[in-house]
Amino acid sequence: MPIEEPLPFWLANVPRDQWPTECPDFLKVCSEKDRSIIGTPDEQYAVLTWEEVRELVGSDRVDKFHRKPSELRRYRQFTYRLVEEYGSITDFIVNKRLQWTQLEPRGGPFEYAEDIKILYNDWPYGIDPDIVHLVVWTKFGLEDDPETGRSTPESQQEIGEYVQRTFASKVQEFVWFKNWRSLKSVDAVEHFHVMLYKPDGEFLQHITNGDVPMTEQLASSG
Questions:
Q1: How far is CA 126 from CA 102, 138, 147, in A?
Q2: Is there a contact between 76 and 30 (Cβ–Cβ < 8 Å)?
Q3: Which residues contact 60 (CB under 8 A, 6 or more apart)?
């Protein structure tokens, strides 16, 4: 009995009648890690529960966060087009998503609201739908340890106090983390992540100023 050849990673999760004849350009330069994820059928991917999210953040294993295979494919396609249109992902974030005309902060860390913007994560990880993933973007820097690339104790305290002030009175369960420098997809603009478990919709509308993540914008536009 002939052995069936494994499906190329770039055909996974694509309807057979939409299979490209060769690997798309946006997937040609792909790490082995991304190839492995994209090549996994969605039905074999298990989303992270809230308990698992808390454990990963608490143990500083944020490198274990991954997107659902089909979402990672869409993300790669989207960012490929972004670079063609805007020149870089950073330019898109600053000009389109943040709409900041300049990046010079008015003051020190968390001193002025105008130096901070909270938006949805455009391409969230494979997590329980009850978990909302936000990104807090800042014009000011937050110090990292030059050797480890992780936040210093001082910047961890600054972020923790801000997150507590901003979310604790409105959301019962939440976590925050700042990606190690080596994991950042956008390094030129400072940011950290906040995940909320079953937050109130009105609070989300207020805190994000009515933001809609790009993955939903693209889905609604067809």
A1: 33, 25, 30
A2: yes
A3: 150, 177
pLDDT digits (tens, 9 = 90+) for 128-141: 999 999 999 999 99
| Count of C-beta atoms within a 10 Å radius of residue 147 | 6
> Can you give the C-alpha Rg of the chain in angstroms?
19
Q: Which two tokens stand for residue 106?
A: 């008015």
- pLDDT (average), residues 13-37: 95
How many angstroms separate the CA atoms of 138 and 114, rounded?
9
Q: Would you state the pLDDT for residue 89?
A: 87
Give the SS3 label for residue 105: coil
| pLDDT for residue 125 | 93
8-39 per-residue burial string, b: 16 or more CB within 10 A, e: under 16? ebbebbeeeeeeeeeeeebbeebeeebeebbb
Render 79-146 in DSSP notation, one character per residue. HHHHHHHHSSHHHHIIIIII--S----SSSTTT-GGGEEEEE-SS--SB-TTEEEEEEEESS---B-T
- Tokens read off for 62: 């944020």
